[in-house]
Each structure stands twice: as structure tokens, then as C-alpha cells.
Design a protein that fits this description.
The longest helix has 14 residues. Helices cover 18% and strands 36% of the residues. By secondary structure, the protein is an alpha+beta fold.
Length: 231
């Protein structure tokens, strides 16, 4: 019987969160939020997150503006006007993709799943050549009023989601190939995980499904508590 991963799953549904943040390039804004400082203090106000610079700026109610880098922040959260949707970011130490270096520096990660294994996310910007896209060639999807560019590549900027797993030892590992990398992490639990994924028809390409997968891995990886009986 497949056990439920209850209590560990904290999914921040991004399609709902899109209604709460105004995004331009790699800059996100929320009308209200809170920054939790490493000193133990916190600051409230309008949140602006500059992803490229890994910096969070907050407009305080008194009109002053302060900015913080990850080294000064434990985490921050952004909320919509009604406070219904919340996106949470935490500071973790990371090698910034250099697997051959032991140097770790603090960076902001969006927190998707909390548990024995955590799911984290960062976003970057990429340029994609849409001139090779069948929709670009065969329809007016990109240029509904005609005036199609002729010759050479046609680039558009798109956000790229990069996922990471927070291991029980506190290490952040980038999931460059989500399915293959997770299957390596499963280890002896690979068959149990594959059964769970198959029975629940989960997909690695779906964020809610990926969150369930990581949450379940954390649930079945909890250390067993040994008890002794007294006669």
C-alpha cells in the first residue's frame, strides 16, 4: 500500500502566484511582504526581488528603501494584496553550479517543498530562437498581423526554471536532469518511488507532481524511531 506524504508538502502553486506578482524580466514585485534578517529582526513592506543580482529590496511603510543580499537574510516572503497567495524564499549555501569547487556562497532559493528532502527553485533568463519553431513557420502565432521577419534567427527572452533538491545533510544539489538525477538520489528506494509515481500518474515535468514526488521521498526517508519494551 502506498503511504501518503502528509504534512510535508508545501506547494507554492505558481499559476496562482502569477496573480500576486508583477514580473519584468528577472525582477518580481509584491505589494507586501516580509524580509527575515540574519540578525533575527524582520522588515515589512513592498518587496522587489532582483533575481539577476540576487538582491531583495523593500519599501518600508515610512517611505524609506533598504536592500539586502543573501548573506544578511534568512529568507523573505511576498504576498498579494489580499494575503491569499504567498511565495517563500530562503537562503541556502550553494556552489553556483561549480561541482568541482568546495566554495559555497549564500543564495536565494524559492521554497517549494519542506521536508526531509526539500525542493527549491531559481529562475534565470534565456534567449530562444523561435525561427525554428513550427508555430513560427506555419502560423501567425507570433505575428498575428503579418510582417514576419525574413532570414536569420528570431530570438525571444524566456524565463527558465532551475530546480534543486535540499538533501538531509543540508547540501543543495542542482537537478540538471530532474528525472535522472532524482532516480540516483532514490537509491534503494527506487522501486518504491517508481511504484508511487506510476500509481499516481505523476510527471516530472509538472511542478505540482514534482513537489509530490519530493515530498513522498522525504516521507519514506524519515529515520525509524527505535523503541524498547519494558517487561
Amino acid at each position: 500500500m502506498v503511504r501518503k506524504a502528509g504534512g510535508l508538502l508545501v506547494v507554492l502553486f505558481l499559476w496562482a502566484a502569477n496573480t500576486m506578482a508583477q514580473s519584468t524580466g528577472l525582477v518580481d514585485e509584491w505589494p507586501m511582504g516580509r524580509v527575515y534578517l540574519a540578525s533575527g529582526d524582520s522588515v515589512n513592506g513592498k518587496i522587489t526581488y532582483h533575481r539577476s543580482e540576487d538582491m531583495v529590496r523593500i519599501n518600508k511603510p515610512d517611505g524609506s528603501v533598504v536592500a539586502f543580499s543573501p548573506i544578511a537574510v534568512r529568507g523573505f516572503e511576498g504576498l498579494d494584496n489580499e494575503g491569499r497567495y504567498r511565495r517563500v524564499f530562503v537562503t541556502q549555501r550553494w556552489n553556483f553550479g561549480n561541482d568541482y569547487s568546495d566554495f559555497l556562497a549564500p543564495a536565494f532559493f524559492e521554497q517549494i517543498v519542506i521536508g526531509n528532502y526539500g525542493l527549491l527553485k531559481r529562475e534565470t533568463m534565456t534567449r530562444r530562437d523561435i525561427s525554428r519553431d513550427p508555430m513560427y513557420r506555419s502560423s501567425r502565432y507570433y505575428y498575428p498581423y503579418g510582417n514576419y521577419p525574413v532570414g536569420g534567427p528570431m530570438y525571444v527572452e524566456q524565463r527558465l526554471e532551475n530546480f534543486f533538491i535540499l538533501l538531509p545533510n543540508g547540501k543543495v544539489k542542482e537537478l540538471r536532469n530532474v528525472k535522472k538525477d532524482l532516480e540516483v538520489i532514490y537509491g534503494k528506494k527506487e522501486n518504491v518511488m517508481k511504484d508511487y509515481i506510476k500509481q499516481n500518474k505523476l510527471k516530472y515535468t509538472s511542478l505540482p507532481d514534482l513537489a509530490k514526488i519530493v515530498s513522498y521521498l522525504g516521507a519514506i526517508s524519515q529515520p525509524e524511531v527505535k523503541t524498547t519494551s519494558v517487561d
